Amino acid sequence: MGELAALELDRRVLAELPDWSDIIGHFxxxxxxxxxxxxxxxxxxxxxxxxxxxxxxxxxxxxxxxxELEQADPxxxxxxxxxxxxxxxxxxxxxxxxxxPADLNGYPLVAHxxxxxxxxxxxxSAPLEVRHGSPDARQLFAITAASGIxxxxxxxxxxxxxxxxxxxxxxxxxxxxxxxxVCGELAAEGVVIDRELFGTLTAVLMPPSIxxxxxxxxxxxxxxxxxxxxxxxxxxxxxxxQDVAALRSIRPLARRYLGDGVEVFxxxxxxxxxxxxxxxxxxxxxxxxxxxxxxGEAAKVINKTNHEAYGLPDAPANGLGIxxxxxxxxxxxxxxxLDEDRVxxxxxxxxxxxxxxxxxxxxxxxxxxxxxxxxxxxSLDIPFSASAHARSAVVxxxxxxxxxxxxxxxxxPFSASTRRRNAELLGDQPGRPLIDLVSEDIFYFIGKExxxxxxxxx
Amino acid sequence: MGDRTVxxxxxxxxxxxxxxxxxxxxxxxHLRHHGxxxxxxxxxxxxxxxxxxxxxxxDAVAVIIGSLNGHARQDLDGLAELRAAGRIGCPVVVxxxxxxxxxxxxxxxxxxxxxGVDHVLDDVTELVPLLDTLGAHIVEVRGG
Lengths: 458, 144
Prior knowledge:
- The complex is a heterodimer.
- Chain A has a 6-stranded parallel beta sheet with strand order 1-8-7-6-5-4, sandwiched between helices. Chain A has a two-stranded parallel sheet with strand order 2-3.
- In chain A, strand 6 (about 230-235), helix 12 and strand 7 (about 265-270) form a beta-alpha-beta unit.
- The longest helix of chain A is centred in the last third of the chain and has 23 residues, at about 340-360.
- Chain A is an alpha/beta fold.
- Chain A has 20 helices and 10 strands.
- Chain A has one domain (about 1-335): TIM Barrel (Alpha-Beta Barrel), CATH 3.20.20.
- In chain A, helix 12 packs across helix 15 (about 340-360).
- Chain B is built from 6 helices and 6 strands.
- In chain B, strands 1, 2, 3, 4, 5 and 6 form a 6-stranded mixed beta sheet that branches.
- Chain B is globular, with a radius of gyration of 15 Å.
- Classes of the chains: A alpha/beta, B alpha/beta.
């Protein structure tokens, strides 16, 4: 078990896991494409792979859900994990699974165990990813690997600050370092685990350069532990040129800061903020997400559903979200072209801002220490943090075109020209309370929905 | 580093059972924009943590508690005892969506006040003008 040693699992947990050679053997004997195979194929065709989020507590219900969603032909399927398991409350998850499974908001993989995980994998032809939100996912990762699941989302920043109030960043980085080390061990055996990094963060008005800077730092930390495949996920902000420029900036930034030893896939998360309520507007935004993913040359897009404004989607709504996203990414919209000069200018500035954010951190002797220190002094920051370990002094605002800019950036180490450009793009602000202006920016698509006849007729 | 700015300090947080982060951060943003130094305790903050924050910042202009999930009365239960024990010595302001359901109980405001709250606000735009009337304590806060 030396190869799982980095996870520092309890002896009783280890005793229930298959041994390392069985884990490797099971991956190799799968005889089915892994997530990285699907991402490579999507890259070759220029059509992003579509993936839904999905997870219900009961095992039979989860098998049924995966089967239903597979009919919509997603390229990858998800196992979304419940909140108790995310927070290592495995006993609570286990108890609720047997008493009130409807109270769990996802699939408690640790409670079910790796044998059932393997059943999930073999029940569908699309490969699976585990999606969650754990600041410390070591035990969950052990079960994921033993299940033969080939993609695992999360990182020490992105799965801490939006999800936990008081977990020190050093602690979450250390836990994820252990996960990445085991991914490195697996890669050395020829088993490539895709590690998706959650640049969506708090999902509210996230400036592109903050999203990419943070996933880039997590990717560098992962690569140092031997990870060979990373997906850098970026949240759709809503302004198409900015979104396309951000997605297209991921590979050049990765080449600059990560080198050539790691495969990098840009991923789009369809709009994660306040979602339109009417079916027509919601479906259109989902279609736009597919188009933006394709124009941005993303390898993958995570779809939304027209139930988003109301809660977790049922299978038919999720299936429609998958299909609608796939249509948006299809050749039906190949006639759509963008003002490439405008995209290139956006990309130039996004890459410059990312450089200004990450380079001071990379200058630190110890990367994890440098990241924690930067959040402590505010030179790294995210808006709307749930965690006390980020200052959230950043004030994101939309410009007239809807692109997300820095209206305030106390502490971020931006150059004078970056500050000047953001200020110029935002222009003179209307003389209304800041809280109203930022709220309008948050509810951007709901405002647009209200302005359409579809929204008015509701 | 080490330069000093004069600022008014407020303690902000969301009630214990309430996870509404975005509204909380918007109010923090709003207060900073108006020149306040905000000690933001964030979502799901038990009353004892507000008291601990007041002990650390006894010159605070106010403790501001947001409650958006309709459980203000339950979450504020125990505030009167904390105040009687002298553990929150500045005015306590509560605002948000204070009860479950769209029909509001006309007695609710008084019930909240009876729990040991000094000011109940219906709208965030009332907050800064109220704090201005409470702003006698000017404190020095280390900047940087």
